[in-house]
Specification:
The protein contains 10 helices and 13 strands. The protein is α+β, with helices and mostly antiparallel strands.
Length: 441
Amino acid sequence: MDKAIDYFSFVTIEKQMMKKADLGELSFREVLAKHDKATADGQASDVPRSALEALKASGKEVRIYDSSQQLLGLAVDGIIIADGSPLIFKGNIERALKGNYAYTITDNKLLYFAVPIQDKYYQNIYVFEFVDDISYFYDMMDQIRYILIAGAAGFLVLITISSLFIARTTTKPIKYLLAATENFSKQQFQRVHLNRKDELGMLAAGLNRMGIQLNDYIQYQKQFVSNVSHELKTPLAAISGFSQYLYEKESEDKELQKIYYHLVHESERLTQLINELLMLSRFDKAGLEEIGTEKTDLSELTKLVVADMKDKAESKGISLEVKAGSAVYVDVNKILMSHAIVNILDNAIKYSHAETSIKIETFIRQNEAIIQIRDQGIGIGEDELARVQERFYRAKNSTVAKGSGLGLSICKEIVEKFNGHLEIDSKIGEGTTVSIVLQRL
């Protein structure tokens, strides 16, 4: 910026000096014309003296040189001086005698401007040089720089404030809408409202209507499942009881006994399914206050659950390897969290191959408490990982074992009640890793 200011400023002052030089040259030519006329009339004429008289007011100093670069006359502050030894820039005089304007600026801000003077035969016989103090010009440039710098600083402040304002008025509502959609994906439906009449306001209104409709639909669905589960519980208990009675009393007909056993087994499976549905229904309606929480050592709780599941694993030829870290405290309901760990461990046992191991580990990751259960089972396809936590969803290869498709859903509901989440990583034929992630105290 400084170079640009200097360049355009010097161009301006150069033009001004050239105009002044043209006027000085014109005056000098008039002196030469008078000299030629006086010579023709036989009268004496002193050209340098006459030129100084005519040009002495042209600058702080005025000099006249001849073609041999000799100083012929000098005027300082409008006064002609007979003898003097001023600072002379010979390079200026040489260039002027070649027919060009020439100037030099000294450190003390004095401008030495040399102008060639031609006779009637267009020969450069004199050089007229004037000296001007241009310190005012540097002061002016400093003021311009100050104004431009101040203006640029003000402009930057204005741009910054404008950018922040635009960011606040544009990105903030977008972040608000993104957070609303994220909450919708977690089935957390809250009113979405932006006091705007533009496209963002219309989008907020659309999201709000969608949220209301989704919430109504989900609540209706949950209520329907809850009602059906309650209605089925009593007749299913009767069927289970009669089936068990018939199975125990039948001892002669083996085929009929197999049928009764099948009835008993299926009624037990349906009873478990109904109980799981009712548990989910209670989760949907209950808050943390109703559930109740307490400070719990997650490592110790995991050890207790693994001990209870050990016999079931060994009956299938599967070993449970526990690597419990130091005490990790979380705020949960012990019974419900035990149920979540049991469900995940039960799945791992159910879908693991015989003579394999399941590794259970508790550890701390930053501010999170982790229970990680890693099996060597059949695994889950990558395209199904996002859906295995949905209610009633069962992976394509899960037919090797019986299940309701509610186990992981219940775990997800339990963990999310305590502000946690599940992380699932799996590969077909290699096994599955399920991590319960909770905020530690």
